[in-house]
Write a structure and sequence with these properties.
Low-confidence stretches: 137-172, 174-184
Mean pLDDT: 77
Number of strands: 9
Shape: globular
CATH class: Alpha Beta
Distance between the termini: 28 Å
Order of helices and strands: EEHEHEHEEEEE
Strand content: 15-25%
Structural class: alpha/beta
CATH architecture: Alpha-Beta Barrel
Number of domains: 1
CATH topology: TIM Barrel
Length: 184
């Protein structure tokens, strides 16, 4: 999986998944057209908040929901909250509570040195620049990105309009051609 603040014109060779930015304090929120460039890839929407003490997690989650609705992302998928090195129990719990109320799952992303100090939500997505990560952890214990229970960490999904992918046991976003999020 790759990500970029400003996405490239096409995916780098060999990548099957892309993580892109839907809001928060990211320098660039991906446009609909930028997301569309990667219709053939698996997608992970990311909400960035490097200074969670300055904002309300509930208000932020509703901002994320607004953008997911605009992109027609169905319920029952995973959204990452990118905290970098920030630790804020209240922010994560409020953000996660609203997202679960709305039918979405949350991975907490951050540096290996701090991310486990935040509540887990549905899992941690850990930035580890020691040559072994990033990796997923559902319990707070380090696990390499290869095969927890025979599965890879790369979300699999379809660009045909069906939610078909999963990471661990969580479904991920598939692009729906029309309708509201979660509509059939």
């Amino acid at each position: 999986m790759f990500d970029a603040s400003v996405p490239p014109a096409s995916a780098p060779a060999g990548y099957r998944a892309v993580a892109g930015y839907i809001g928060g304090d990211t320098p660039h929120v991906w446009t609909d057209a930028e997301w569309k460039r990667f219709d053939g890839l698996h997608k992970l929407p990311i909400w960035v908040r490097s200074n969670p003490a300055d904002v309300d997690g509930e208000v932020e989650a509703f901002g994320a929901l607004r953008r997911l609705y605009q992109l027609r992302v169905p319920r029952e998928i995973t959204v990452a909250i990118d905290l970098e090195t920030a630790v804020n129990d209240s922010y994560v719990r409020k953000f996660h509570s609203v997202m679960r109320w709305a039918g979405y799952f949350v991975w907490v992303y951050g540096s290996a040195s701090t991310v486990f100090e935040n509540p887990v939500a549905e899992g941690y997505w850990v930035a580890d620049y020691a040559g072994k990560g990033p990796f997923m952890s559902r319990t707070g214990l380090s696990r390499p990105p290869s095969t927890p229970a025979g599965r890879t960490m790369t979300p699999r999904w379809s660009s045909t309009g069906n939610t078909t992918g999963e990471c661990g046991s969580r479904a991920v976003w598939a692009v729906r051609p029309a309708g509201r999020p979660g509509s059939k």
